[in-house]
Amino acid sequence: MSADGSLGAPPEGAAEDWTIPQGWDRYTDVEHQTWVTLYERQQKVLPGRACDAFMHGLDALDLHGGGIPDFEKISEKLRALTGWSVVAVPGLVPDEVFFDHLANRRFPAGNFIRRPDQLDYLQEPDVFHDVFGHVPMLTDPIFADYMAAYGRGGERAMKLGQLHNLARLYWYTVEFGLMRDPGGLRIYGAGIVSSRTESIFSLEDNSPNRIGFELERVMRTPYRIDDFQQVYFVIPSLDELLEVTQRDFGELYPRLAGAPDIPIDAIAEGDAVITRGDQRYARERAAAVLV
Ligand code: PHE
Ligand code: FE
Fold this sequence. Notes:
single chain, 291 residues, 5-stranded mixed sheet, two-stranded parallel ribbon, binds phenylalanine, binds fe (iii) ion
């Protein structure tokens, strides 16, 4: 980030890095209650479905308590564990702002919460998705390193004009990743753990494909931003995720730029198929919005 305005103008009231005060004192009872309702719903579906690292993270941050967490309090705990903190932003921020925060171990979280009539679906990430979904995994030292490395990688990919393929890696890992835990397939992606319906769908529905994670394969696969995923990629462990992404993407990008996308519902040559889905759910829904 530079001070010469190259980040684009932040909204009024926001700092140069787009952060704002969380304004914890301003949350209403209804807003805190929305958090509690969402929290309690996830308590019912996540044990046995979310990975151990996520469940431990919830405990370590003491996110169980009543209401929307105070970012300063969770940051204090998080800093001691992995050097990360949580900062408030008004909503989605420009890519370069986002990457700069990640590279410096700050997770930018929306400070607003969805309305009570939006419990199941919301297009823009709110504090429940951002904090409940993302922050527990940041207590894991390996995942914490992965996210910071992703921030640095994002800055670099932007300069190379290669964000398109890198964003898919984020989507299929940080947002919608599954992993193998000793007990079986488990969720670690924030977009899944913050959604009651997708927590069940991603693991149990017959519709989506579930395929072993392979870096280039993932980066060639478009994703859906409007509905449940049609394919989930399964990592063997967080260590292996960090390890395969440590390589220099500089030689990968030119190859990816020349390679065709893999259709979202396809099984490709060389795929380690865990479940071949029937894609029934996707077929019965309206046209997909792909990225
Ligand atoms: N290793 C990648 C690069 O060289 C950066 C990266 C690290 C990307 C971790 C994603 C996750 O650009
Ligand atoms: Fe997210």
